[in-house]
Amino acid sequence: MDVLNRLAKAGIVPVVVLEDAKDAVATANAMVAGGIDVMEITFRTAAAADSIKAVAENCPDMLVGAGTILNLEQCKLAVAMGAKFIVSPGFDAEVVGWCIENGIAVTPGCVTPTEITAAVNMGLKVIKFFPANVYGGLNAMKNLCAPFVGIKFMPTGGVNAANVREYIEAPFIHAVGGSWVCPKADIAAGNFEKITALCAEARQAAFG
Ligand code: 3PG
Fold it and tell me: Does pLDDT of 91 surpass 80?
């Protein structure tokens, strides 16, 4: 199954912020145990690159990607460490172009018709929509997919167990992203059973 299909099948792409790479494998395994076998490790901390490497090397059942990729340098580093997909909060043509050339799945954040046009014209069919709760949520995406026929969104920002079903059921949603299934505090405290439970609950909320 290709990478974008793996994301759609999981339905929920955890947005994971790791302060210490030593927690990466346990976090990944906790999520797999809860039924979610994809994760985005964000380049918001110094531990991101080592965390991606640890998961890529030690968790064969987990599909690991990199998030918060702002420039080509980070993108290349993430892929070198083993990231199988790239997520960005915004649209950077250099990052998107490099990923396409190198066969790496990429979902840049696009919320305006102009940004979506740029992504579509580079051949993308799935884009991130962030922050979804600020830029109009489902109603905005529903209206945007009228001119952009066939475009699919991965919304993040404000998605949670209470509203995930509503997102997942919309025909223009590819998958959702969110941090609610892997709170930073629980990772830091080693509450990995809690992360497994949150993932299982999220899958149940999304798919019944
Ligand atoms: C992201 O980076 O995609 C968001 O910060 C995730 O948003 P959330 O914390 O509301 O899930």
Answer: yes
